[in-house]
Amino acid sequence: MRIVYQISLFFYSLFVRxxxxxxxxxxxxxxxxxxxxxxxxxxxxKSVVWFHCASLGEFDIGLPLMEAWKRxxxxxxxxxxxxxxxxxxxxxxxxxxxxxxxxxALDTPKNAKAFVKRIQPKNVFFVKYEFWAFHLFExxxxxxxxxxxxxxxxxxxxxxxxxxxFYRRILKTFNHFFVQNENSVRLLENIGIxxxxxxxxxxxxxxxxNKQKAEPNAILEKWLGQEKALIVGSSWPKDEEIxxxxxxxxxxxxxxxxxxxxxxxxxxxxxxxxxxxxxxRYSSLLDTNTISDGIQVVILNTIGHLxxxxxxxxxxxxxxxxxxxxxxxxxxxxxxxxxxxGPKHIKFPEGQLFIDKGFCFEVATGPDLRQxxxxxxxxxxxxxERMLRFMxxxxxxxxxxxxxxxxx
Length: 408
Prior knowledge:
seven-stranded parallel beta sheet; alpha/beta; 408 residues; 44% helix
């Protein structure tokens, strides 16, 4: 399997390089790996802690732990690596404690040896997924302590297959796993790894940080007054099909903030065509800061405004549940908003957890959505109170991990 792993990476790299001539993301992936700052730096006097994040999402997950580490170890030098351009292009939009941020070179023995030999990490954290074999092998050989945080395992992954010996070897480089649930612990035990602690999801800490830092939105506040809106987060076309039925036929004058997953012109135009009530693009309001009377839907065709918008809602519909790419449901949950999602959420255990607790409601059709939405409205204060209480009890995961690390 090691050979298969290396061949797969080779062809992946080849495909990306070919795609770079016409795909901006592929071009960013290639260009970002042409010149590494770490190659010309001296780390001999630094105590390096290395965090690897696949993309911006994993960076956001790891941020509370990075900040907790830096608070307790202010002299440590934090190196953050990304695989995806989304991380490198957007991490600086967050307040962060990183000292050096780079792309991770393609996972080859040569690249891994050069990187680890240069930065000499004392502690290594891989956030959630994406375990790069040769970088981990080299860090282990170099004496680093290696941890996986916010990990979530499923039985269909390669690590747990009869032919997954090479991938099990990758897992055995880790000193400890801080996992999201008990099922992940059991899966590791089944392959002889007995070094895992259930911590829950670090994203709880992150969304509470976001809530505390939530800034007022003058445009939405003036538009809504004392009203609360239905907030639609990261909708895909399939989500919008059933949402149009609800918005056009069943909401009356209820106001809606709709943030699509893709904000390209074609998608925004299709949304406008599907809506039969007055709507406006958020981008057109930024200069005037006013919304005309009678507008019922504000389309958030901008980046960075959705998280703060949840504070103005009473119910949330979160997209991606028809494609198996569910957006983060913790963002509205921290504000106590009951949540509606599509049926494909098996890879997102927080979805089923919230369904079991009566905070989240699965829908598959337009009539289903209308029924569940009106049921929520009838029980809104009670659901809101239970959600807020539950979410408050989840805070402190990064501090818990820091305490556990001291005992390992």
